[in-house]
Amino acid sequence: MEREARDRGPSTGKAFSAWRTASWVALVYLAVGLLWIGLSDQALLWLVDDVQVLGWLQTVKGFLYVSVTAVVLFLLLYWVLAARDRASAEARYLTEVVNRSPVVTIEWAARPGWPVVYVSPNVRRWGIEPEALLSGAADYSQRIHPEDREAIVEDVSRHMERGPDEYLQYYRLDVGGGRWIWVEDRTWLERGRAGEVRRFHGLLMDVTERVQAERNLRDSEKRFRAIFDNVQEGILLQDFETGAFVGANAAALAMYGYEREEILRCTVTDLSAREPGYEVERQQVLIDRARRGEQIVFEWRARHRDGHVFWVEANLQATEIADERLLLVTLRNIEPRKKAEQALNRQMDRLTHAERHAGLGSWEYVIETGQLWWSDHLYELMGLEPQRYAPGLGDVWEVQFDPDAGDAEQLKEVLQQLSPGHEGIGRRFRLLRHPSRGTERWFSLTVDSVAERDDGLHAVQGTMLDITDLQQAESELRQFNAELEERVRERTAALEAANQELESFSYAVSHDLKAPLRGIDGYSQLLEADYVDLLDAEGQMFIRNIRAGVAQMNELIGDLLDYSRMERRPLEQRGVRLQPLIEEVLDGLDPALRERAEVAVNMPPDLELQTDPDGLGLALRNLLDNALKFSAPREKPRIAVTAEPRGETLHLAVSDNGIGFDMAFQERIFEIFQRLNRAEDYPGTGVGLALVRRALQRLGGRIECEGRPDAGATFRLELPL
Amino acid sequence: MSPNARQPAILVVEDNPVDIDLMQRAFDRRNLANPLEIARDGEEALACLQRWESGEQEPPAVILLDIKLPKISGLEVLRAVRSHPEFGRIPVVMLTSSSEDRDIHTAYDAGANSYIVKPVDFTKFMEVAEHVELYWCLLNQHPR
Question: Which among A75, A134, A410, A586 is least buried, having the fewest CB atoms inside 10 angstroms?
Answer without folding.
Answer: A75
